[in-house]
Amino acid sequence: MCKRTWMRCALSAEKCDCPAGVRERRWGVRISTDARSSLSVKFAVLVAAIFGVILVTLLLVQRTQRRSLAELLESETRERSNMMSRVIELTGRPLQDFTYDYGQWDDMLAFVRAPQREWAAINIDASLKNFDLSAVWVLRVDGTIVYASAGENKDVPPPPFPLAPSQLQALLEAGKAKEFFVGTPGALFEICMAPVLPSNDTARTGKAQGWLVAARPWGEEQLQLLGDVLQCKASLAPPNRQPKSTQPNEIVLSIPLRGPVGEPLADLVYTISSAELEIVGRVQAIEFGLMAAALLTASIAAVAFVYRMIVAPLRTVGKSMETGDTATLHGLMNRSDEIGHVAQAVKHSFEQRDELQSLMEQRIRLGRELHDGVIQTVFAAGMSLAGARATLRQNPDVAEQIIEDTRNELNATIRTLRDFINGLEPEPLQRRTFRESVQSIASLMQGVRDFEMRLEIDDEVGAALTASQRLHLLQITREAVSNSVRHGRANRVKVKLAKEGTGRVLEVVDDGVGIGASSSPAGGRGLLNLAARARELGGELRMNAGEGGGVCVRVEMPG
Predict the structure, then answer these.
(1) Selection from 413, 555, 554, 543 nearest residue 5 by Cα
(2) Cβ distance 252 to 76 under 8 Å?
(3) Are residues 381 and 514 in the same domain?
(4) Three-class SS of residue 174?
(5) Is residue 248 included in any domain, yes or no?
(6) In the prediction, which pLDDT does 371 show?
(7) Structural domain containing residue 378
(8) Mean predicted confidence (pLDDT) in 17-30
């Protein structure tokens, strides 16, 4: 980095165009970026996690309830299915009793061999009503019909035999009793077919000597009877077309009704509304709602408690640490928990920081005043004494005057040091005008190098300066004149204090070698102190090349 660029950096930190790392090294400023995650974001993640856990818990509870309800439904379905089978068996028992009992009877065997209508009217026709049958057929061994009856009402003709010849022939060849269903146009019949045997063939191992076939219709009355017994709705549906359940507490069962050779003719469908399942479902829904409400209420209360007792106070502490304002911590410091201890620690750290900052400012101010005032004066005094020694023999009066002026400046410097130690403004500033102070600086610097000093000072502007403003402007003047004489090797130096527009301007212009050829060290404190003093005055320090060469140091400050 070139010297001119460094000087711009030193004069004004606000206008410095150097890289951030260079500026940090020059000014000692540490620029850091807080990469920590926001507490609010972490709290939001925590809240989301809590409600996520609650949601998963509720889903698991709901899944468990549904599984329990499904197991109960399965158990209820098995129980109802067994009950349906027993009920169908019981309702079909009269049909079996008639065919099995009447088929194993010597009189029925005699009737097959020699039919008598009077006997049939007494023993067969009268029995249909007792056994709730719709029709009876008595067949020979070859399947020809011996007798057919629809009951005692002679006006009702006997129904046609419901089986096709091929179906009947297959059953006759099997030679065993059989129960099945037969479908006719608009009706469905339950059929029971048993062989006619002698009464003494209790084991039913003999060869069939005839056949007794009985039929019972499956209409609305039969379905209503089954529904009343099972407390459900019974209906017939096409085979393999069982309707699906539409309610969670509804059970739909079906039993296939098979034909003579085992083919499905229809499905007997039971639709059961289980009050127990409905009650269990309602209880589970209420339990789930209460659990969800309890979990949500507890979670909201926990989140609110954590936010109020931890997150919000920590955010207040963080905001206080960012802004440096401890007023927001008063409410937290009264707490006796850890948050209260943290707030008190933060306030204590602020107090220590302020104290340390005050000490650092005092140290910086003392170092700056020593550099700009005492060191410059002592250096100039040393140079003046060296010059007085050289002129002592040729011009004793001049040498004596130089020694007297040097003694006065050293005495003033001693008083200045004493005042700084006591924390007061320098006393010489309160006794001299601004012009007189600049003339004193010029006289002292004459011992370093002979040069022409030109003053263009507006005394009204100088008189309007406060003690602090006079101190800063005089130290800037002292440093600038010292640099012009010592490093710039100037022959003429002009100091100007005037009012420009609404502000005030101090200029120190010399005809020296300029900035580029100056032997001033790039790392010295002088320029940094000049820029710091200009900022404390609320103004800006500029350093440019003079019109005829040399350097122009210009301080612009508000009026």
Answers:
(1) 543
(2) no
(3) yes
(4) helix
(5) yes
(6) 64
(7) 355-558
(8) 39
